[in-house]
Amino acid sequence: MPACSSGPGTGCVMTGTLLGNSRPALAPAPALSLNESLPPDRSAFMRLMGAAQVPAPPGKVRMRLPQLREDLLNQLPAVQAGVSMALLDAVMARAAGTRAAAPSPVTVTVEMVSRFHRPGRSALLAEGWVVHANRNLCSCAAQLLDEQGRLVATASGTFKYWKQAESAEEK
After folding, report:
1. Is the pLDDT of residue 20 over 70?
2. Entry pTM
3. Total domains present in the chain
4. Among 33, 57, 95, 112, which is least packed by CB within 10 angstroms?
5. What is the Cα–Cα distance from 143 to 38, expressed in whole angstroms?
6. Is residue 13 in some structural domain?
C-alpha cells in the first residue's frame, strides 16, 4: 500500500498503480499510468480535486482520483470523508442524468447516505448506477474502491431532475 514518505506538511502525494479488476462485480478499468494525466473534468470541483470521469460499462458512471494529495487527506493520513462523499455524489448524479429516459441531464442531490468501510490510502475509483427512476426523481447507489479493488465507502442517494423550464421560485 502506498504511503506518504515525505510526511504531512511536506507536499506529500499518495500514489500507486490504478485500479485493476479484483472485484467480480466490476469490468476491468481502463489502464492509465500515473504519469498520464486524466482529461479535464466538466466540473470545476472535480478538477480542483484532480478527479475525472473515465469510461465505464453501460449503465454505470466511473470517476478516478489517481492521486491523494496532502490537501485531500485527513490526520491518519487517508482520504478525507468529504472527498469520498463528493466522488460518490458525482457518480450517482451523473448516472441519473445519463440514463436513456432521463428528462434532463442535470440533477440535484435531494438526499445522500454514505458509509465508510476502510481508510482510502491510494488511488480511488468511484462507480455509480441507477437503482430506480421516475420522471422527477432517481434513486442511485455508488461504491468507492481503492487501487486493490477493496471497498472504501458506499452510498445511496436520491436525485431530482433539474428541468430548465422551472422558474426561479421553484428552484
Report:
1. no
2. 0.77
3. 1
4. 33
5. 20
6. no
